[in-house]
Amino acid sequence: MRRLAIAAALALALSPMTHAADPLTPLAERYVRLMLAIGLHDADFIDAYYGPPEWKQQVTDRGKQPQAALLTEGDALTAALEATPVPDTEIERLRRTYLIAQTRAAVTRLRILGGATIDFDAESRALYDAVAPTHTDADFDAALKALDALLPGAGPLASRVEAFRQRYVIPKDTLDAVFRAAVDACREQTLKHLQLPEGEQFTIEYVTGKSWSGYNWYQGNYKSLIQINTDLPIFIDRALDLACHEGYPGHHVYNVLLEQHLVRGRGWKEFAVYPLFSPQSLIAEGTANFGIDVAYPDEARVALERDRLFPLAGLDPAGAAKYYDVLAVLDRLSYAGNEAARRYLNGTITRDQAADYLVTYSLSSPERARQRVRFFEQYRAYVINYNLGKDMVRGYVERQGGTAGKSAERWRIFGALLSSPRLPSGL
Ligand SMILES: [Zn+2]
Hints:
By secondary structure, the chain is mainly alpha-helical. Helices cover about 60% and strands about 5% of the residues.
């Protein structure tokens, strides 16, 4: 004890600046409390909280604070964070930038909750630290023509695509077996490259009546609850998508690594709260989607699904090659979903027109289009996090040298991103 005290005094005398108390930690606690307080106004806001239970209890006991007071606290906290010195190490600089950007986003979300109208792109910049590119309808023509050639016939193209995809629906009685096999495959691949802490695991539930198709609810202590929405038929390719996206190496792994390295490893409790409408979500959704390609790049994915998942689902693998050709072209239409959301939320098209747009340009079934519009209404500009997030994460990983041919390097860079507080503008 005495020796330690002398050593500490000596270190302080030698370099008083570097040994000053960490100014971010008390502000990080204020940040957590502010997020929890906003959560009392917005049921979708807190995606996960596994920090000190007494902090949550205190916020809950205090009850809903007026939004104006929370706005004042948000602005004051942003100013206090900006007044702290820029740290010496990269990870600490990322932490400071993270706290500032996340707090600013929360202030914008509060303004939206208070009735402020904000344009789609301004919202995505303020909440997710990024803006999706704008496309004209003509940008999707080439992909629509390619699909028309792949699936010739009479009737609207969307109906032909839907009829073709119906042959690849996972029968309800095999869904759990197929999904669990997909999870095993994703986990196996992930564990070859990333070291996960002992005891990590998740439970799976099947639910209905949601605007999303799957959701990972992180519980802390390296555990997640994954919910799969069975309102609409689930196509065979969605099993691996969901298993990788929600589980390995997607949301479950991202949360596990943040808990292990930042919350426990460094004692940074702000990472034990995850506010959904924040820049962190672009990283979360972007890594979850890009993680599918990291775990199962093109050919490996087709082989796994055709040889393992199709038979489990009782589907004929003979037509698999064409199915993946169709999916590859459909993927080129993904940004049509952002256009529908942008136009609808900006008020330039109606709810029905948004659904029609999704049928025409995303080639969704009318039921799927309506579910998607409900998602726009609930989560708004959040939609950009999936495809723009994936493209930004891919760009970052590949610029660091993690290109498709270099699997080990790709996993290493991807794993480092999952364990860090990096935000979209840091990509
Ligand atoms: Zn997700």
